[in-house]
Amino acid sequence: MLFRSPDSPGPDALQAALTGPQVHLVYLYCHGGVGWGPNKRRVWLSVGRSLEERFAPDQLRYWPLGWESRPLVIVNGCNTTRVDPSQLANFVREFAAQGAAGVVGTETTVWETLAQEVGSRLLAAMVAGKPLGEALLGIRHALLRERYKDRKSTRLNSSHQIISYAVFCLK
């Protein structure tokens, strides 16, 4: 099932799209942040263009997704620099409780152009049958070669974005 936020806005539509025993891959191209709810410290992800479409990790535990197929969840988030990695771990924990086999996410800020490129390459590699870890490592190496081959400096500059994707294997 393809979920497109502009066509079906809001967390209820996202929940409906994610629900079912045969979900094999969940790909969330999203934005993240902190500062929602009464204490203004709640971490959130938004899958749409509006902040009304955001959801928090604790909401996931109330979504009866019914995953029997143990899907891989890819959280390809941009502008998540305000989100502490320990806070994003709450999403990993909740996706695991729902039955996810693994979660791929970012650990530093990843801007939209890079997120799109990594996402496209990762999905293509997975369709081609490459193991997830091998695919991500190959993407990292290829992007570093392509983007920094003409640089004389050995400083990483913004290349930390390329290496910021992490795989969390669960259960």
Question: What are the key terms here?
Answer:
6-stranded mixed beta sheet, globular, 5 helices, alpha/beta
Description:
With 171 residues, the protein is an alpha/beta fold. It has helices at 11-18, 57-60, 85-98, 112-127, 132-148, and strands at residues 25-34, 43-46, 54-55, 72-78, 102-106, 165-169. A 6-stranded mixed sheet has the order 3-2-1-4-5-6, sandwiched between helices. The longest helix is centred in the C-terminal third of the chain and has 17 residues, at 132-148. The radius of gyration is 16 Å and the shape is globular. Residues 153-157 have low confidence and may be disordered.
Q: Number of helical runs?
A: 5
- Overall spatial form: globular
Low-confidence stretches: 153-157
Determine the mean pLDDT: 78
User: Which sequence of SSEs, written as H and E, runs from N to C?
Assistant: HEEEHEHEHHE
What profile does the largest beta sheet have? 6 strands, mixed
Strand content: 15-25%
Summarize the structure.
This protein has 171 residues and is of the alpha/beta class.
Question: What's the arrangement of secondary structure elements?
Answer:
Elements: H1 11-18, E1 25-34, E2 43-46, E3 54-55, H2 57-60, E4 72-78, H3 85-98, E5 102-106, H4 112-127, H5 132-148, E6 165-169
Parallel strand pairs: 1-4, 4-5
Antiparallel strand pairs: 1-2, 2-3, 5-6
